[in-house]
Design goal:
mainly alpha, globular
């Protein structure tokens, strides 16, 4: 999900920068102590700078969300939102980001109906701000689309994905991983709708883009591999599906541990596919 563009000095700036880098690189264990120290320092030294505290809370919230600690992540985002809404104007982009991130928690919990108004609020604010932040706008479009997919509102979601891809592919500032997320989510929708040829094209491209940007063993790559495996399973190619499910499982188990929801989902998919193969 989205991150603040937070600036500060000294130790706090380093903690936020390094902790966030480690999180993005798929190393949450190393990131957590740095981001927790950042929150502590911000609360001690930034009483008159709520945006700095909010930025630290948001960064830790992103990590907690990655680790499936959804209650803690939501509380951190809510606290950051309260801080920014209590002060003078000027923080609209960060408030929009927090609505986006709160919607992401509900998506992760599969509370899609609860997440939809939050995602729409974040997108509405981003459009109202009207700044040239293409990546943030595209991320908001993709976040809302994913929540709509969860409610099988496929037509509106597809339109949002395509809008996001047009923005990202025309932007000089977009990175490959951001494009990969949009391609992956649209590809996953096409799998659900039985549009397998188009889905495969998008999911292969998403996996390649993410691997080049993040590394082949990043958990975000596993998400695309898992979706691609689902596609092959529904086509009846269970050998190819089980190989991809197994690869995805190895990645997320190594990066996130055996009990993370992504690991549990991948293991369930892999074991189901193996069981089907054993009966054939």
């Amino acid at each position: 999900m989205s991150e603040f563009d937070t600036t500060s000095g000294g130790r706090l700036a380093w903690l936020l920068s390094e902790g966030s880098r480690l999180r993005r690189d798929g190393n949450p264990t190393a990131a957590e102590p740095l981001l927790r120290e950042a929150v502590t320092l911000a609360e001690q030294d930034s009483h008159d700078q709520p945006a700095r505290i909010a930025g630290s809370l948001n960064a830790l919230g992103l990590l907690c969300k990655d680790l499936a600690r959804y209650d803690e992540a939501s509380a951190l985002y809510e606290r950051a939102l309260d801080l920014l809404q209590s002060v003078a104007s000027g923080h609209a982009p960060d408030i929009a980001t927090l609505y986006h991130n709160l919607a992401g928690i509900e998506h992760a919990r599969r509370n899609y109906a609860a997440g939809e108004p939050l995602a729409r609020k974040g997108l509405e604010m981003r459009r109202w701000i009207g700044r040239d932040d293409d990546a943030a706008l595209a991320a908001d479009l993709v976040a809302l689309a994913a929540i709509l997919d969860g409610q099988r509102k496929f037509d509106e979601a597809e339109s949002l994905y395509l809008d996001a891809l047009r923005i990202l592919e025309a932007s000089p500032n977009a990175n490959a991983a951001e494009i990969g997320v949009a391609l992956n989510d649209l590809g996953a929708q096409y799998v659900e709708r039985g549009r397998f040829d188009r889905a495969e094209e998008l999911l292969v491209r998403a996996s390649d883009l993410k691997a080049r940007r993040l590394g082949a063993r990043h958990p975000d790559v596993a998400v695309s591999l898992n979706n691609l495996a689902t596609l092959h399973e529904r086509r009846g190619d269970t050998d190819r599906a089980s190989a991809l499910f197994g690869e995805a499982l190895q990645i997320v188990e190594s990066a996130l541990g055996p009990n993370h929801p992504k690991t549990v989902d991948c293991r369930r998919n892999y074991e189901r596919c193996l069981a089907v193969n054993s009966r054939m």
